[in-house]
Amino acid sequence: MGFSIALLAFSGLLMLLVLMHKGKGGGLSDMFGGGMQSSVGGSSVAERNLDRLTVVVALAWFAIIVVLGLLMKFD
Q: Subcellular localization, per the record (predicted)?
């Protein structure tokens, strides 16, 4: 039960983190006006930290899914 709640929480957090990323262009972000923004330079510190946080949350999300799968298999 605890892992199911954790999975829901991490799924919501991962969704929010992905939506916070800036569009890189060439996809749906261009269709809705995201391609109009000019890039001032490389990634800022905030963007790099957001990338790192997204990767950490995604790895934790994946680990929870593996644990839930193992619990269901051996239960």
A: Cell membrane; Membrane
Could you give the CA distance from residue 5 to residue 9 in angstroms, rounded to a whole number? 6
Q: How far apart are CA 65 and CA 75, in angstroms?
A: 15
Question: Cα separation of 50 and 46, whole Å?
Answer: 6
Which pTM does this prediction carry? Answer: 0.73
Contact status, residue 1 vs residue 66, Cβ threshold 8 Å: no
pLDDT tens string 43-61: 688 889 999 999 999 999 9
- Nearest Cα to Cα of residue 10 among 71, 66, 49, 73: 66
Q: Please answer whether residues 11 and 61 qualify as being in contact, where contact means their C-beta atoms are separated by less than 8 angstroms.
A: yes
CA distances from 69 to 14, 20, 22, 73 (A): 20, 29, 33, 6
